[in-house]
Amino acid sequence: MPIRTLVWGENIHERTNAAVGAIYPDGMHTQIARLIGADSDISVETAVLQDHEHGLSEERLARTDVLVWWGHKAHGDVSDEIVERVALHVWSGMGLIVLHSGHFSKIFKRIMGSPCALTWREAGERERLWVVNPGHPIARGLPPFFELENEEMYGEPFSVPEPLETVLIGWFQGGEVFRSGLTYRRGAGNIFYFQPGHETYPTYHNETIGQVLRNAAKWAHNPNRYAALLSAPNRPVGEAMEPIEQRGAKLHSSGKDHGFT
Amino acid sequence: MPIRTLVWGENIHERTNAAVGAIYPDGMHTQIARLIGADSDISVETAVLQDHEHGLSEERLARTDVLVWWGHKAHGDVSDEIVERVALHVWSGMGLIVLHSGHFSKIFKRIMGSPCALTWREAGERERLWVVNPGHPIARGLPPFFELENEEMYGEPFSVPEPLETVLIGWFQGGEVFRSGLTYRRGAGNIFYFQPGHETYPTYHNETIGQVLRNAAKWAHNPNRYAALLSAPNRPVGEAMEPIEQRGAKLHSSGKDHGFT
Amino acid sequence: MPIRTLVWGENIHERTNAAVGAIYPDGMHTQIARLIGADSDISVETAVLQDHEHGLSEERLARTDVLVWWGHKAHGDVSDEIVERVALHVWSGMGLIVLHSGHFSKIFKRIMGSPCALTWREAGERERLWVVNPGHPIARGLPPFFELENEEMYGEPFSVPEPLETVLIGWFQGGEVFRSGLTYRRGAGNIFYFQPGHETYPTYHNETIGQVLRNAAKWAHNPNRYAALLSAPNRPVGEAMEPIEQRGAKLHSSGKDHGFT
Amino acid sequence: MPIRTLVWGENIHERTNAAVGAIYPDGMHTQIARLIGADSDISVETAVLQDHEHGLSEERLARTDVLVWWGHKAHGDVSDEIVERVALHVWSGMGLIVLHSGHFSKIFKRIMGSPCALTWREAGERERLWVVNPGHPIARGLPPFFELENEEMYGEPFSVPEPLETVLIGWFQGGEVFRSGLTYRRGAGNIFYFQPGHETYPTYHNETIGQVLRNAAKWAHNPNRYAALLSAPNRPVGEAMEPIEQRGAKLHSSGKDHGFT
Q: Using omega within 30 degrees of 0 as the cis cutoff, is the peptide bond preceding B157 cis?
């Protein structure tokens, strides 16, 4: 069975800004989905902010292996309830790929637990992305570096947690650097942050970007879900694996689980 | 100047449960503060849930180097607004030591971005804590292992992010293991999670526990604050360090910073 | 094409010690190979210390995807030259799974760069292995814990580098704990250390052990090799991606690469 | 007591190359020592390749808290025996700061266990070092970035293990990036790799470089040594912390420790 990806797009700039609309006439989410779906081992669907429940119903997330997130202008319009729903799926094992300005999305800030801030400049300058970890699955088949003639500058410090691994670092023409490809696991969910993708440039028409996204979808895919990571079950004394006796004072009545929230 | 620690306690069980009150007649926070304050390089104050603003006013956090957190029964009674305030201070550089059942506190779940769940059993069984990273500053002066004759069992999987370093692992008499001492950095804030400390046992009368807490306070202490990690400033083209020209389409008017939330 | 694994065994105890021979009449390497080869996506061969070049010729390593290493008594008899050859293959992308007493093998110490010491006791005591990272590919399909009724105790501190991720932790009947499943990457090579496997107990007849080994082989497999990680090439000024001029004094004549050793 | 640092220099180029001699008339090690010794909490000595035992006798290492290493041309002239001696001290808790071309020194390759390769260009181009982890002790007091008008380019991929933390990343005028400040722990020894420092440029006359080196010395300092991390002691059955009985077959006679090598 192919890896079931779902590309989520904010779907605003492409309809309200002529420059963006010219690059992505069918929407950014559609073009991102084309890149990812170019691999026959991956199936792809799309959802947008304007859909009912933002297209992220419980049922749909339950059949999603990897969620890809692009948002920028309307982070605040995403429902808190749905952000929590997505977080629960990530912790249970759904993969998550966060793109570009998604660094400030509710879902990314929620699962990073840190500010996720950075510096930025919208000058259409050159970015050169270097593979610093060629053996990582997300770097498979990539050249030593690749260039985007126009990108938005994102600069350090990027206030995210130290990653499991740094895969890519970006060099910017104006003088900055940025950790452009970072991996995390939260609960059982694999997470990849990937910096390129400003809406006024044709980044998602670049084939190497497509290769990174497909690699990331395969890396992030976990065929199982792990609901057990969400609850705090009591293990009664009588069921201990090694023989022990009840000692000391006790607060809890036996068998009562801690709830998650 | 000494390291300014603030020990925060929920302060409920010691007043409502006779067994806890007998062990901690002055409150758990008071006894934890005694352990930490036994080092003349560290000054200590306390605050409790019942204080105005839970004793965690903006002004007080601003003069706190390391916050120590013990809570269990009333996580839900902590104000969301104050949790966000604490998180901002941690990200800016205030240290945070989270104790025992604080694994499910709002502040710990907030900055971990993961479920922080585990398994548990309140049987007063023996725990033996092993130092797996003797060279870490938090392990300074510790023996290879130390024992608590009665502790609550906390068992894996502990659904927290992979730590920077694992310092201690606990062995439980009933057959479980637990990563009992874990380090993190979020923004500029150093965070230490330390598992022992169930309220019905005299854990905070143990001198080795005191040594760990004092070491952790010293490790977590950062003399500076880093407000810059919280904002996403624009870097105008004209101020770029290397000469570049504006190219391509542009969404933002120059000089407009991204807000944090 | 299946993943090509090569199981290397010291092949001494099973021929000289009656107890070991009774458990592994065809050699430990043969039984380990049976466990791994039970998955049709994996092909398996074996090699032993007594083979010409220990069965680890350049040609054979070049067609190996993942090398599995079991040694104990005769670490010192492994040729230094062949250890370096194996290291070069690991750094280039060959996976490596190091078993049990292999913690003190030349190849493991070589690529860890640390003492790799631990404490031990050969008492046939019970070990219970806990999955602390259920979402990791090496934990796929495993129960929350599994038991080995007889194992050699290995205790902390295990003086290895902090791993990329801790997957398994062992609980021992006599009171110790051990980080029993650890992942690393060195160059492009994925490395997994797995603690169980003392020769006087039937560990490699345990089906869950087999599941871990097969998962580890799949996780460690990298379809590419990356020879570029071994050399330090000069990038001449005239070929710089951004226009620069030669400035300042110069030590090297252009075009001379740094050698690796 | 101040932190006792020992700056080790190869001490060749400054005597044989006029350009280097003009910048460092007293030797590079002397100038590096001046930068580090500018803090009254740190005492400093120097040693050079040409000294008896390279100035790294057992006795001297035993009274060194942090060793600073600069070498380039003559890595091969450093005695293997002394490299092993230094490694044993690092694993036991001596700090180690490796500078620039020391990436290919025997001691760095020995304790990294990986190729430590990179790309390079000696063009005197501009480097701009970005602090990506402002809250790390090594970044204390640093500006967001600092510039070296002339440095040797070092480019990714740098085939070192994933660090504990990435502190600094370098931007190069010619288009490359490099992880310029990386932290590790091996055994109990704290290790910092710091990329700037080519001998034909006045890098060690830069005050910000001095600040990094002093911060690194303080971070790397561990007041204790941990010889226990080097040996693998047997824990006899009769001394187990929990009552167990000898079971199964046994290979070792009791009480025999595994040797380290």
A: yes
CB C162 within 8 A of CB B166: yes
Q: Of C219, A229, B257, B29, give the one whose Cα is nearest residue B20.
A: B29
pLDDT at B255: 47
Listed in sequence order, the residues at least 6 apart from D63 whose beta carbon sits closer than 8 Å to its beta carbon are D4
d(C-alpha B69, C-alpha B221), whole Å:
15
- Average pLDDT score over residue span A55-84: 98
- Identify the residue among B105, B177, B258 best suited for mutation to test binding to A, counting A beta carbons within 10 A and taking the highest: B258
Alpha carbon separation from C223 to A135, C3, C220, D156 (Å, rounded): 10, 9, 10, 22
8 Å CB contact of A226 and C134 = yes
Burial class (CB in 10 A: 0-12, 13-18, 19+), C40: exposed
Average pLDDT of the segment spanning A253-260? 50
What DSSP state is assigned to residue D57? Answer: -
Angle value at C-alpha A253, between A250 and A255, nearest 5 degrees: 125
**A132, D179: Cβ pair inside 8 Å?**
yes
Q: Are C212 and D84 in contact (CB under 8 A)?
A: no
Mutate to test the interface with C, among A111, A131, A147, A185 (most CBs of C within 10 A): A185
pTM of the model: 0.96
pLDDT of D219 reads 98
Taking CB atoms and an 8 Å limit, are C229 and D91 in contact across chains? no
Distance between CA atoms of residues D89 and D65, nearest Å: 10
Nearest-Cα residue of chain B relative to residue D140: B224
Rounded-to-integer distance, Cα D3 and Cα D21, Å: 29
Exposure class string for D146-166: b at 16+ Cβ within 10 A, else e: bebebbbbbbbbbbbbbbbbb
Q: In DSSP terms, which residues pair with C147 in a beta bridge?
A: C128
User: Is B174–A244 a contact, with Cβ atoms under 8 angstroms apart?
Assistant: yes
Cβ-based interface (< 8 Å): residues of C facing A: 93, 128, 133-137, 140-141, 144, 147, 164-165, 173, 185, 187-190, 222-224, 226, 228-229, 241-242
Residue B84, helix vs strand vs coil? helix
Q: Chains contacting C with at least 3 CB pairs below 8 Å?
A: A, B, D
pLDDT value at A254 more than 80: no
Q: How far is CA B109 from CA A114, A155, A228, C70, in A?
A: 11, 28, 17, 41
Residue in C closest to D91 by C-alpha: C114
D124 backbone φψ class: left, alpha, beta (φ>0; ψ -120 to 50): left
Beta strands in B59-118 (DSSP E): 66-70, 95-99
Q: What is the ipTM of this complex?
A: 0.95
Contacts of C95 in chain A (CB under 8 A): none
Q: Give contacts of D134 with chain B, Cβ < 8 Å.
A: 188, 226, 228-229
Measure the CA–CA gap between D5 and C190, rounded to whole angstroms. 36
Cβ-Cβ contacts under 8 Å, A19 against chain B: 249
DSSP β-bridge partners for residue D261:
none
Residue C135 distance to chain A (closest CA, Å): 4
Least CB-CB distance to D124: which of C235, C240, C246? C246
What pLDDT is attached to residue A258? 54
Q: D-chain residues within 8 Å CB-CB of C28?
A: none
- What are the two backbone dihedrals, phi and then psi, of residue C32, each rounded to the nearest 5 degrees? -60, -40
Q: How far is CA D176 from CA A120, A131, A197, C104, C242, in A?
A: 20, 11, 21, 39, 9
Q: Cis ω on the peptide bond leading into residue C157 (within 30° of 0)?
A: yes
